[in-house]
Design goal:
The structure is a homotrimer. By secondary structure, chain A is α/β, with parallel strands linked by helices. Chain A folds into 2 domains: 89 residues, Udp-n-acetylmuramoylalanyl-d-glutamate--2,6- Diaminopimelate Ligase, Chain: A, domain 1, CATH 3.40.1390.10; 224 residues, Hexapeptide repeat proteins (UDP N-Acetylglucosamine Acyltransferase, domain 1, 3 Solenoid), CATH 2.160.10. Helix content of chain A is 18%, strand content 26%. The first copy, chain A, contains 6 helices and 39 strands. Chain A has an 11-stranded mixed β-sheet with strand order 10-13-16-19-24-27-30-33-36-38-39, with helices on one face. In chain A, strands 8-11-14-17-20-25-28-31-34-37 form a 10-stranded parallel β-sheet, with no helix packed on it. Chain A has a 9-stranded parallel β-sheet with strand order 9-12-15-18-23-26-29-32-35, with no helix packed on it. In chain A, strand 5, helix 2 and strand 6 form a beta-alpha-beta unit. The interface between A and C is large, with 84 and 77 residues.
């Protein structure tokens, strides 16, 4: 892939300066850039290492004196982080897979494949499955009975979509992710210790140890358009109704979405996030890595949770939370400060007790 | 699948009322129910939405006036949550897979398959492996050398059972789970910083940085009867003795069971639970999502741990714990309350110090 | 596999005593040992159960009176834990896989395989991939376009190495691990609530809900020599530069390494550890299970983090940390003690306030 500075600027809706016909093969950090790379020098501190590389052209910040940086050409990005999206799309070399249906793929005769669908080597497409036009099913993937995947999707190696899962258009799935495992749902003949402890907040009473009987998952998984799933993440089926993930929501590696969970639109769930059964997550929610959400909890729209937050009760819309348990971020920051000084507080109180006791005795 | 109200009630050991010959094709939440669904209205608040759907029959609570709810038939469930088990078993449509040995499966000539065993497309059954009667090995599964799986098991797509793993009857494994990876066990030629820090609770002393030498896993994994494993969970082999999981224990998605771990019977380990090497977990233990157990720790029978609990030391039988570190649930609930008021406590103490100091000066 | 006591002692650089020609088929814990096992009795407390087994020979501690223990032969290990490495290497039975290229493997004609490379059943080796001499690619593995794996590697069942990933020699990968998924990197057209909340530590200001645009991952993954990856762990590609893992680093099951992360040499990352994007981890770092590291954070050489530590800010070299948030281990241990006494502290302060208030009133 090779583009001129002019072509790149046009594709990004940005402005080109200098040698607009300079040909570019890739993008690189300033210190690593070759003469055919566009260096990413979108902040002055990044530009400082331009001299260590061989870049003749760079993406620079608004108002940068690109000529003084020794460049022959420059592209100015008004919002540098956003421009990264267009730039990386332009230069993405892809996975290098062949198109078409690989002869080793096992495609059921009743499956329905749209125009220009590719199915990689050793993939399985089950009976009655429907794959929308232009979707790429990578190598060693599995698409179950009557599952439906929309148009323009891209499934990386080893993705597993179970029976009857419904997925919208432009779906992206990273390697090894699993959609449609059975929910983790069991019940005991009599009230269990967990049910008792939940009701009493900690007391199991005289409940007896019992073995667990399985509740089967009859519900499916329904995923909207423009959803992306990370490597080895898992999304369980619902018990009766479907587990649902709204349009534009992005889910990272090793995330776990339990049965019946409802997730809104345009939310981000980062690595190792766990959402327990029947929890509801709103729109435009961002949960940082390792955040956990208890079952049956509601997390409102636009909530942001910092790293490893443990959400044990409902969070109202718009709140920014952190900590175990989740509290407003500024409260948790105060708690963190307090914990560091906790020993001193104990000492102060001990000292006070002594002083007060002495002064009373001396009264 | 179609059953009459009478047939369903009989299968569940429940009581049918009204039009017992009404035919039912599925179960649904009240608002979503069609005229051929059994609506799940097992609590008065669920029944309120019956009018939004078209249900003619419902599962209702004991004493419900089902006719007043506009129903033609009803089934009364004494313990509604438990009845869900029988009901979902009845209506589970399954995965829709063909039976028999798929021609693309690679089954070693020395493997031994019981009666009515199915092996899905592109699965591998290794030398000397034994699969019990009626077990279904799904698509793209792997069963290693001399592994043994009992009768009536069901392995979903992409399950991996390593060499010499031993598994009992009625095993259920969700997609992508891995049994029998090597343990994470390394050693340095001289005492490592970790060993020193453990001995001193925090001081690495003058230990030197070293590289790690591998301890191979010679032990296997032994899994009892009626065990279920979640999607993409991982269970490591033991070093010398086997990692063991008792009868009736259920393990959720993305759970990690380290080498040498011993888990008792009828325990539940929810999503993202991590059990470090050589820990022992008792019978009827319930660990909520993201709970972690340190290596070599003992967790007694009937222990319940709330979400994201971090268990760094032994927990006696019957205790209900929560928090980081794990404490009795009511203690942790008090701590949570205290943390929210911690800033005020610091202010109170500062105020007290001032008051006491002033009053002493004024003495 | 069968060795004499003399052969075993020689292989370990240890000293044999007694019947040096006794033949040994395996290793076992004392109580489980047969007459042909070497019992592991490297501490006096382990030796106590020798009588429950049938061992004729054991590995014992320095200075042990092995004859008094009823043994015919003994090997003395100066550092018992270290000797486990050699001993388990000696007796590892391996996976029992056939060598050579399995006829069902899909190896691209442009892939380059070194001498004595094995490729298991139903594995895929992509165009231009290079596999070094002696490397074993297990069953159902995937090696992508132009990926490179060095010499003497061992990939267990279902490992997935994406396009252009570069891996050194003696690589070990446990089942289902994924190297080279795309980074989790998105951007909004205007400043997002997350960006605002980060800048203000908790305030989203008047940012508007927006949908997320994808930043593609152009960087690769570069892994050094002697690296081991655990079951179902995931390592993402970098955005521009590569994600890098240094020589001798070992990564456990279900660990998540985000895009652009740099990890040094000889570090250990235990189960469920999550490293967010662009974090840097030094050399000889040990992160215990479930530890999380925020994005763009730096963790210095020789840092040790205890179980479930949440690292939200830089950690200087050599520090031993624990807790949420990560603090020096002894500080956190003090905090844990303080939390258990927190309720009493609130009571003490309440009491003090009353006393002081009374005494002032009585003044």
């Amino acid at each position: 892939m090779s583009y001129t500075i002019e072509q790149i600027a046009q594709a990004l809706g940005a402005t080109a300066f200098g040698a607009a016909d300079l040909e570019i093969d890739g993008v690189a950090e300033p210190a690593d850039a070759t003469a055919r790379d566009l260096a990413l020098a979108m902040k002055p501190e990044y530009a400082e290492t331009l001299g260590q590389g061989a870049a003749r052209a760079a993406m620079v910040w608004e108002g940068a004196d690109w000529q003084a940086l020794g460049l022959e050409a420059a592209i100015v990005a008004p919002r540098p982080r956003y421009v990264m999206s267009g730039l990386t799309t332009l230069f993405d070399p892809g996975q290098g897979w062949d198109t078409g249906i690989h002869p080793t793929a096992v495609v059921h005769e009743t499956a329905s494949l749209g125009a220009d669908v590719s199915v990689g080597p050793l993939s399985v497409i089950g009976p009655g499955a429907q794959i929308g036009a232009g979707t790429v099913i990578g190598p060693q993937c599995f698409v179950g009975t009557e599952a439906r995947i929309g148009k323009g999707g891209f499934l990386r190696e080893g993705v597993r979509i179970a029976a009857r899962v419904q997925i919208g258009d432009r779906f992206i799935a990273q390697p090894g992710c699993v959609v449609g495992g059975d929910g983790f749902s069991y019940v005991t003949p009599e009230t269990s210790g967990v049910e008792a402890a939940r009701a009493t907040l900690g007391d199991q009473g005289d409940t007896q140890a019992q073995s667990w009987t399985r509740i089967h998952s009859l519900g499916g998984v329904e995923i909207g358009d423009d959803v992306e799933l990370g490597s080895n993440c898992t999304i369980d089926r619902g018990t009766i109704r479907s587990t649902r993930i709204g349009n534009g929501t992005k889910i990272d590696n090793l995330v776990m979405i339990g049965h019946n969970v409802q997730i809104g639109t345009n939310s981000l769930l980062c690595g190792h996030v766990g959402i327990a059964g029947s929890a509801r997550i709103g729109n435009n929610v961002v949960l940082a890595g390792q955040t956990g959400v208890s079952d049956n909890i509601f997390v409102g729209d636009n909530v942001i949770a910092g790293g490893a937050t443990v959400i044990l009760s409902n969070v109202p819309a718009g709140r920014v939370v952190l900590g175990y348990p989740a509290m407003k971020m500024d409260t948790t920051m105060e708690v963190f400060k307090g914990l560091r000084r906790l020993k001193r507080l104990f000492n102060d109180v001990a000292e006070l007790k002594k002083t007060v006791s002495n002064s009373r005795q001396s009264d």
